[in-house]
Design a protein that fits this description.
Blueprint lengths: L8 H16 L2 E5 L2 E5 L7 E5 L3 E7 L8 E6 L2 E8 L18 E8 L10 E5 L2 E7 L15
Antiparallel strand pairs: 1-2, 3-4, 4-9, 5-6, 6-7, 8-9
Length: about 150
Amino acid sequence: MNALMRWDPFKEMDEMHSRLGNWLGWSARPDRGRELMTVAEWAPVVDITEDAKEFLIKAELPEVKKDDAKVTVENGVLTLTGERRLEKEEKDRKFHRIERSYGSFLRSFALPETTDGAKVTAEFKDGILLVRLPKSEMAKPASIEVKVT
């Protein structure tokens, strides 16, 4: 004898969301009164702006020491690497919840063709890494007048 089962389309959508989240390495949703949150890895957020002289990359690196952050340029790629270290639990203090991500990070950006990788500068202040990419002088295209006779 066959048993009838009730179809729940929302259950299938929920399962699909969960599978996609697992594949992407994230999931954040309440589940039957429990809080589920998985953080894949930590990477600093950046703002990239441009003016007539340069490109400017601002990376937020809260609680990262200057010595734990590194900027490299190689083969036309700018790479930011570093590490944010987890505080050690002390005898008189317990951690009840740790939601911030810790560990190593890596962000890479292709340099625009209008920049010179040898002139990149970086400074670190108040948890913000400022990377300046000065624009290089490019040869201006020459126009040649063609006379038709």
